[in-house]
Design goal:
Pathway: Carbohydrate metabolism; tricarboxylic acid cycle; oxaloacetate from (S)-malate (quinone route): step 1/1
Protein name: Probable malate:quinone oxidoreductase
Largest sheet: 10 strands, mixed
InterPro entries: FAD/NAD-bd_sf (IPR036188), MQO (IPR006231)
Number of domains: 1
Cofactor: FAD
Number of helices: 14
Family: Belongs to the MQO family.
Length: about 500
């Protein structure tokens, strides 16, 4: 462990709060790098990957900026900025490399179908958006990561790529689409459970129905952690000490970081947004749509609410999802409390919250419209992508809760739609706030955590990390291994 704690005893070396993809990724990395360290994972619900990482609580998109327009904003001069798209793509590549390495080593049993090749498409309508998509395609394909991205304005071609987009489409307005055949659909729930199971075989302990309720830093730098047993016949609360704590509790992370009283969390607040999807398992429809199709967000809509029609593979079963339809709730977790938002208010984050509220009235208007939408409105939205949609084929499901980051910034406060890693100055505790691209870039985020919280070990760890993820060191993914994985059906191949 870090030199600052070498001579102090602790119950565990690493305590991970939350049983989602972030904790599973960190457990996998640390368990590989330091097999002698004692690792404990504490999940408040009765099984891992039940909140945001659950396959039906997210869209399952392997976010690589292949189809998401919010990663390629238009500049004032009309040109398209692809900087963020390139970064997101490179970060997702790290995730895929780690997953492939674990699968090839037999360390992800039961998750062979967790990542499946699913083309990523962007579909737009209207002359202005068609022209923007063309400029986006031209800007992206100059980069080697996007060199094979396809573009078309031909409806016949779009019909071959994704027939449901044009079947029964009677209008004659211009349309366009791009396609990346190497996109992926990810069952993050299955992946998380497999990674945690692997961590257990390597010595980690996973506790479910186990809620961290208190964090207090000791003078020697360790953390005293109080854990409550949530089972109906559970044991009394348990107290243990940890050298390092990671709070990967999704929407619950803000509350716990506030309880830790680290100065780095001051000024942070959360803006909760819920969501719903329409889902169908009709075999005839599923067979016609083997792609993830993203469009353009409505005015005032947050990036996570960009509509998309997605092929899904969950626990080996195929389905289609459309959405999300955004909503609002004071809960920070799907199984949270209606008082979550109120309990997060502090003197230090009140000004940022008010400032963000006053400057984002278009978002408030959008959420009100979404919350009050009826079945007919949801069907109209679906039919803008799939004109032939029959409401009898679709059911409405509730997705996971997302908490967007509010923090101090220009004008008093800013609303962020990405993820934010918060670490203490001494590196003894870290937590993750925010949402998309989240799970897809979990590996890059956890590598950032290792660098920031364990700087004295970074040089010693780097060679082994580069073996797990060759592109981390600027190297290329081993083409022979990639092809073997594809031939064997061990997860999906890369691009």
């Amino acid at each position: 462990m870090a030199a600052r704690n070498q001579d102090t005893a602790a119950d565990v070396d690493v305590l991970l709060v939350g049983g989602g993809i972030m904790s599973a990724t960190l457990a996998s990395l640390i368990g590989t790098l330091e097999p002698s360290w004692r690792i404990e994972v504490h999940e408040r619900l009765d099984s891992p990957a039940t909140e945001s990482s659950n396959a039906w609580n997210n869209a399952g998109t392997g976010h690589a900026a292949l189809c998401e327009l919010n990663y390629t904003p238009q500049r004032a001069d009309g040109s398209v900025d692809v900087t963020k798209a390139v970064t997101i793509n490179e970060q997702y590549e790290l995730s895929r490399e780690l997953w492939h390495h674990l699968a090839a080593a037999g360390r992800l049993p039961g998750a062979e179908d967790a990542v499946t090749t699913t083309p990523h498409l962007t579909f737009v309508r209207g002359a202005e958006d068609v022209e923007f998509l063309r400029r986006r395609w031209e800007a992206l394909r100059r980069h080697r990561l996007f060199a094979d991205l396809e573009f078309t304005t031909d409806r016949a071609v779009i019909a071959r790529w994704a027939p449901l987009l044009v079947t029964d489409r009677l209008d004659d307005e211009p349309v366009a689409a791009t396609r990346a055949t190497w996109g992926t659909d990810v069952d993050f729930g299955s992946l998380t459970r497999a990674m945690l199971a692997d961590a257990v075989t390597r010595g980690a302990t996973v506790h479910t129905s186990s809620e961290v309720t208190r964090l207090r830093r000791l003078r020697d730098g360790r953390w005293r952690v109080t854990v409550a047993d949530r089972r109906w016949n559970g044991n009394p609360p348990r107290t243990l000490t940890a050298r390092f704590v990671f709070v990967g509790a999704g929407g619950g992370a803000l509350h716990l970081l506030q309880r830790s009283r680290i100065k780095e969390i001051r000024g942070y607040a959360g803006f909760p947004i819920s969501g719903q999807f329409l889902r169908t398992t009709n075999p005839g429809l599923v067979a016609q749509h083997r792609a993830k199709v993203y469009g353009k967000a409505a005015i005032g809509a947050p990036p996570m609410s960009v509509p998309h029609l997605d092929a899904r593979v969950v626990d080996g079963d195929q389905a289609l999802m459309f959405g999300p339809y955004a909503g609002w709730s004071m809960k920070f977790l799907k199984r949270g409390s209606w008082t979550d938002l109120l309990r997060s208010v502090r003197p230090g984050n009140l000004v940022p919250m008010i400032a963000v509220g006053l400057r984002n009235m278009s978002l408030v208007t959008y959420l009100i419209r979404e919350v009050t939408a009826d079945d007919a409105a949801r069907l109209r939205s679906l039919r803008s992508y799939m004109p032939s949609a029959d409401p009898r084929d679709w059911e409405l499901i509730t997705a996971g809760q997302r908490v967007q980051v509010i923090k101090r910034g220009k004008g008093g406060g800013v609303l962020e739609f990405g993820t934010e890693l918060v670490t203490s100055q001494d590196g003894s505790i870290a937590g993750l706030l925010g949402a998309s691209p989240g799970a897809s870039t979990a590996v890059a985020t956890m590598l950032d955590l290792l660098e920031r919280c364990f700087p004295e070990r970074a040089d010693a760890w780097r060679p082994q990390l580069q073996q797990l993820m060759p592109s981390m060191g600027g190297g290329a993914w081993d083409a022979a291994l990639e092809q073997q994985l594809v031939d064997d059906g061990t997860l999906t191949g890369g691009h």
